[in-house]
Amino acid sequence: MDSPKISEMIKAKRRERELTQEELAGMLGVTKAAVSKWETAESYPDITLLPQIAQLFHITMDELFGYSLEFKPLKIVNQYHAGFSLADLNDLSVLDHGTIKECVLKKADGEWEVRVQMISNEDDFPYTMQKCLKPKRLIDMYSYRLADGKIIDDHSPNKHYICREKMWEYHTSNKKYMFDMFKEQVAMGLLNEDDIY
Q: N or C: more exposed end of the chain, with fewer CB within 10 A?
């Protein structure tokens, strides 16, 4: 029982009803000294008096205790994880849409490139990434669903292949969709046919 809130409520409601401590005491069958102690939080009413006090002030027991239910709906978001080279982008503004987890300088095919691992909670992050990609570039991305910051363990994160022309989303269990997706990527010149067999 939170006696300071009860004491504040009794005092406020008594004054609102324009009652003296003595008048309230008479209505409840207690002494004026008892009401005074309730209002200064030196003691609080007997539990059997609480419903009577709430009824007298036309409030609920929750209001008497100063309790209010704070309902917060569960916030579910996708957290996207993407690895890419800065050379894949024609617009670096995508870096403003998340947090860079890792950034490394790497030599690939005789050229130096900056590789980035990035995380974003923005719902439309895959589409933002798609708009910033150069043509004929491909990014592999996966996402987890988070509920109030904790991963919802559904054992299969969403996976995305993103290029400037199209975006594919898939789950590893749908083999036909994956095969069709890879065939289309070969047709677009984004993958070699040898890479999918």
A: C
